[in-house]
Amino acid sequence: MGVPVIGTVGRKLFGSRNDRMVKRYMRLVDQVSAKEQETRVLTDADIKAKTIEFRKRIADGEEAVDLIPEVFAIAREAMDRSVGIRNIFNPIHEFDPSVLPDDARALYDETKALIDATEDKKPDAGLLGCIQPVPAWQLVDIPNALYEAIRVLHPKSKMPFRARPFDVQLIGAVVLYEGRIAEMKTGEGKTIVAPLACYLSAIENKQVHVVTVNDYLVQRDRDWTFPFFCTIGLTVGAIHPQHMQHPQLKQMAYHCDVVYGTTAEFGFDYLRDNMKMTAQEQVQKRRQIAIVDEVDSTLIDEARTPLIISGQAHDGQPRYEMADKLARYLESKQTPWSKADQAVQSCLVTISGLEGDIRNSIDKDATKAMQEKLANAKAKLPTLEAEREQYTQYYEIELDKKKATLTHEGVAEAQKEANIGSFYVGENMDVPHLLEQSIRAHTVYLRDRDYMVAADDKGVQSVIIIDQNTGRKMVGRQWSDGLHQAVEAKEGVEIKQETQTVATITIQNFYKLYERLSGMTGTADTEATEFYEIYKLDVLVIPTNVPVIRQDHNDLVFTSQKDKLSASIKEIHTMYQVGQPVLVGTTSVEKSKQLSEELKTRFNVPHEVLNAEQHERESEIVKFAGGLGAVTVATNMAGRGTDIKLSPLSPAELIEHWKRTDICPREVTSDMSEEEVIKHVYRHVATKELGLRKADVAELLDDDIYRKLVEHWWATSCWWVDGDKASSTKTDKMLADLDHSGACLLHRLRFYENVENLGGLHVIATERHESRRIDNQLRGRSGRQGDKGSSRFFLSLDDDLMKMFAGPKTLQLLSKMGMKEGVAIEHNMLTKALTKAQRKVEERNFLVRKNILEYDEVMDLQRHEFYGLRQRVLEGVEIRELIFDYIEKAVADSVHNYLDPIYSASCITEWIRENLIVGIEPDRIIGKDREDLHKLIIRDSREESVEIIRVTIGEYLPDTIDLGDGKVSERDETSWDYQGAVDWARVAWDSTLKISDAANMSRSDIIATIEAAAEEKIVNIDLSPLDQYLVPRHAQEELAVWVKSKFDIPCESKDFDDIEPEEAVELVMQRALKTYEKREREYPIENMLEMTSAMMQQDPAKAIEGFCARVKVKYDLDWTPQSLPSNNPQELAKFLLEEAERWDADRYQRRAQRILDESDNDLDGWLRENWKFGLTEKEKERASEDTLAVAVEKIKQVQRAELAHLERMVLLQIFDSVWKDHLHQMDQARESIGYRSFSQLDPRIEYKREGARLFEEMFEHAQDRVTDLVFKAKMQVQAPQQQAQQQGAQGQPKAKQAQAQAKPKAAEHSVRAAADAAAKQSSGGGGTMTVGRNEPCPCGSGKKYKKCCGAT
Question: How far apart are alpha carbons 1001 and 991 in whole angstroms?
Answer without folding.
Answer: 15
